[in-house]
């Protein structure tokens, strides 16, 4: 953990550069460097363990080295491919208004992700009370959940950049159309993922468990089969929350994160007391449903406020409220 903490610098560095490239419409290059980093990480780890007989320290060092190499390669490509992004002396100036504009969006997002992480820790703490077997089952099931929901997260992540680009260009009909298409795609994807996880839940759990007992395997399968039924609500959280962030409405996603935390905390403690481990399985879904309802209603209220027509060319510039026009003009001047 001490060594990997230094690797956080590389992760932040890479995500920063990848975000810039994606905002320019180049989403493939960050992916290529991420794949290269993963392969390089494996090669370095095998080399350090097999050749130099290193312990877990070598694995941590190999991970950090791979992350830094990927970040610097991404930086080199960006500076060569996009000369306009090269820093100059005049760029190093302190602009309080510019910094404040960024913090208005960044700080709520930071708190939001921290709240979501706190909710997961809360559920884990309740789960720990049921013994090592239940902990193993829960850990395996949550790993499968993370893998299964990654496509949904990626859709939402892509929608943030798409929404921000079109919001800045005042092409609000494109935002509405893009969110609708992502909604349909995410809903369909969540249903397919739910079916696969529900049918092959036990087989998937076996991939993360070493010679599990019937009870452990049953608990892992139970979690998978319960949560997969609610993936469609999680998909809507990713879509509408990220769309609102792309339009600069960071407070609404923050509130949805707080709702998710409260409901997850309430469900984990109250249901676990009456239903045992099965109650823990319902903590996540209850939080997803609550947050999804709030963020969906909020999105439609925001969109309705823009008074976007249902029909018309997608490249038609729409009128935005006066305060939003002022915000955009400030960004253009900066």
Give the topology:
Elements: H1 2-23, H2 28-51, H3 56-81, H4 96-127, H5 132-168, H6 172-199, H7 201-207, H8 214-227, H9 231-246, H10 251-275, H11 277-281, H12 283-306, H13 322-333
Helix pairs in contact: 1-3, 2-3, 4-10, 5-6, 5-8, 5-9, 6-8, 6-9, 7-8, 9-10, 9-12, 10-12
Describe the structure.
The structure is a single chain. The chain has helices spanning 2-23, 28-51, 56-81, 96-127, 132-168, 172-199, 201-207, 214-227, 231-246, 251-275, 277-281, 283-306, 322-333. The protein has 2 domains: 2-91; 96-333, no CATH class. The model has no long low-confidence stretch (mean pLDDT 83). It has 13 helices and no strands. The radius of gyration is 22 Å and the shape is globular.
Major beta sheet summary:
none
Could you give the distance between the termini?
40 Å
Q: What's the helical proportion of residues?
A: over 70%
Number of strands: 0
Rg of Cα set: 22 Å
Short description:
The protein is mostly helical. Helix content is 81%, strand content 0%. It has helices at residues 2-23, 28-51, 56-81, 96-127, 132-168, 172-199, 201-207, 214-227, 231-246, 251-275, 277-281, 283-306, 322-333.
Key words describing this protein structure:
334 residues; mainly alpha; 2 domains; 13 helices; globular
């Amino acid at each position: 953990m001490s060594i990997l903490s230094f690797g956080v610098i590389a992760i932040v560095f890479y995500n920063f550069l990848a975000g810039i490239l994606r905002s320019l419409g180049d989403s493939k290059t960050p992916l290529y460097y991420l794949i290269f980093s993963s392969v390089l990480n494996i090669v370095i780890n095998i080399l350090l363990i097999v050749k130099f007989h290193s312990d877990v320290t070598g694995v941590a060092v190999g991970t950090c080295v791979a992350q830094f190499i990927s970040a610097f390669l991404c930086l080199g490509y960006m500076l060569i491919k996009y000369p306009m992004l090269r820093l100059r002396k005049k760029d190093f100036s302190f602009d309080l208004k510019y910094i404040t504009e960024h913090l208005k969006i960044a700080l709520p997002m930071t708190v939001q992700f921290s709240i979501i992480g706190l909710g997961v820790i809360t559920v884990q703490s309740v789960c720990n009370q049921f013994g090592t077997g239940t902990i193993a089952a829960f850990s395996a099931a949550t790993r499968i959940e993370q893998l299964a929901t990654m496509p949904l997260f990626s859709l939402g992540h892509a929608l943030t950049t798409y929404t921000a680009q079109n919001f800045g260009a005042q092409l609000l009909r494109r935002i509405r159309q893009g969110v609708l298409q992502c909604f349909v795609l995410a809903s369909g994807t969540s249903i397919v993922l739910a079916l696969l996880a529900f049918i092959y839940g036990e087989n998937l759990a076996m991939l993360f468990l070493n010679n599990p007992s019937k009870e452990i395997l049953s608990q892992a399968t139970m979690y998978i089969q319960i949560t997969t039924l609610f993936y469609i609500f999680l998909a809507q959280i990713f879509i509408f929350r990220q769309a609102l962030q792309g339009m600069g409405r960071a407070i609404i996603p923050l509130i949805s994160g707080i709702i998710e935390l409260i409901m997850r905390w309430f469900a984990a403690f109250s249901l676990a007391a009456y239903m045992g481990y099965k109650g823990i399985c319902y903590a996540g879904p209850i939080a997803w449903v609550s947050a999804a309802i709030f963020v969906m209603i909020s999105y439609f209220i925001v969109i309705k406020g823009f008074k976007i027509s249902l029909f018309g060319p997608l490249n038609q510039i729409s009128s935005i409220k006066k305060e939003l026009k002022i915000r955009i003009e400030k960004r253009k001047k900066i």
